[in-house]
AcrR family transcriptional regulator (Pseudonocardia parietis), 200 residues
Amino acid sequence: MATADARPRRRADAERSIARIVSAARQCLGADPDARIDDIARAAGVGRMTLYGHFPSRAELVEAALVDALRAGEQTLAAVDLTGDARDAVTRLLESSWSLVAESSALLSAAQNALPPARILELHPGPVQRFEELLRRGQDQGVFRTDLPMTWLVGVVHHVLNGAAEEVHAGRVEPADAGRMIVATVRPMLAFASSPTGGV
């Protein structure tokens, strides 16, 4: 029968093992979105059985790696200055968001291959909420459009960021150009529309 001291030690060992696996998954999938489970297990210093004991499917492991990356990214985004004109704040937020996407484009590609798009969006509650609040402020300032649903606007921005990551990963867009292109795409899309066919 296990002693009371043994159980906490096993839990601590399991937590350390999970942390190593998630860290290895971030590293391996960040370098190659098609990285094999064997490669991730080897990088984590564990066997396949141990890895599958914590993450029964590839999708669960990819999701854990993405959540861990998003948690780290949230700290960066929380430091972005969103005061002042909402248009300038959106530019700063997009540039910071893009830098995070650029750093983990391969990981995002792995997530897109393993997880439904809706699930990926669900895993971004902090960034999504921050962007929604900024858009509403811009709408109150009269600089952002109000003729389209908020969920649509946020979804379009999400797809632009992920699409840019795919283009960079495929070598069709230089990483140094992606931030500028994202801002040039998103800001006009968000601009206040004076009519269904035009803007100001």
